[in-house]
Amino acid sequence: MKKTLLVAIILIGHFAAVYSQQDSVLTLIKKTYMIPMRDGVKLFTVVLSPVNYAKPVPVLLQRTPYGSDLSIKEDAELKIDLLSPYFRNMVKDGYILVMQDIRGKFKSEGSFEMCRPLYHLSDKTKTDESTDTWDTVDWLIKNIKNNNGKAGILGVSYPGYMALDASVDPHPALKASSPQAPIVDMFLGDDFHHNGAFRLSYAFEYSYYVENAKEHSSPYPFPQFDLFNWYLNLGPLKNVNEKYFKNRIQAWNDFTKHPNYDSYWKKQSSLININTPQIPILFVGGYYDQEDLNGAQVMYTHLEKNDRFNRNYIVLGSLEPRTMVKSESGQSGQNSFWKQYREMV
Is residue 192 left, alpha or beta, with left meaning phi > 0 and alpha meaning psi from -120 to 50? Predict the structure, then answer.
C-alpha cells in the first residue's frame, strides 16, 4: 500500500512539473557576471533567464553606455510584466535577455572611447565593440544554461551603433542584428553634425553626459532652464575648455580639433568600414528623428548595394516601426527579416 502511494505521489509530482511549464515566459531570474574579454578587461553583464521554461532559448543581447544593471538583487525574480514593452513582447516568447555595460562605462572595466572605431579591421591585436561582442557571445553560449546556441543583438541610438558593429565579423552563434536609429557617420548626418554643420549644444551636453563620470551619466549642471542666452554668451569654442571642461572631456577635445571630414571621422564611419551584411540586419528608423535621421536610411541603402544573400532589411515609421519599406527584392522588410530570423533561432 505504501509503495503504491509513493509511486502515485512521484507520478503526480512529475506531471505537475511538466504541465506547470508555461508556453510563454512569465518570470525571469537575475544573474550578474564579469565577462572576460580577450585582452583581460571584464565587462559587467546582467543575464535574465526564464524561470520554469523547459525549452532551450536564444540569447537576446543589448550593449549600452547608459548602465545595464537593474534595481533588484542577485538571484531575484522579475515578473515579465515589469519589463518595458520594448523587451516584454519579445522575451515572453522565450529569450535569455542579456544587458551589458560597454568597456569603460558604469560597472565594466577598461577605458571608454566614444564611437570606438573598428580597430581590429586593420590590426587583429586590437579590441573594439565587434571583438567585445564576439567574446561576450562566446562566453554566454558556453556558460549560460538552457540557451540553444544562438543569439541576436539589438539596440536604439548608441546601443543601435553597438548592434551594427556587432554584425562585423560576428561570432558564429550571432544570427541577427537590429540596429535601431543607429549612429552611422558622426560628421555627415548623425548627432554632432548635420551635413558637416557642428551642433554645439548637442556636442557639449552629450560629451559631458557620457564622459564626465564613469559610474553614471551626468547631465550638465546648467545654471538656468532656457539655454539660448547661455550658449549665445558662451563665445568661441575655446571657452568651453577654459571655463568649464578644463580639457577633461576627450570627445569634446576631438570634436574641436577636427572641424573637417578628416581621418578622425572617417575611421569611425560605418559607411566606410562596413560594406556588406554578414548576417541578417533589420534597420529601424523614424521619419522625424532629429538625432539620427540619416542613420538607418543611409546605412540600409549603403548595404543594399552589396546584399547578395538577401540579409538587409529596414522598417521606417513616424513614432514606431509600423510602416513597412520594401527591399529591392520586393519583400516587406520586417516580415521577411523576422521569418528568416525565426527559422534560425
Answer: alpha
The pLDDT tens digits for 44-56 are 999 999 998 889 9
* Residue 191 to residue 186: CA distance in whole angstroms: 6
Instruction: Tell me what pLDDT residue 105 has.
Output: 98
Of 83, 104, 316, 340, nearest in space to 215 by CA: 104
Tens-digit pLDDT profile for residues 228-275:
999 999 999 999 999 999 999 999 999 999 999 999 999 999 999 999
**Whether residue 9 has pLDDT greater than 50:** no
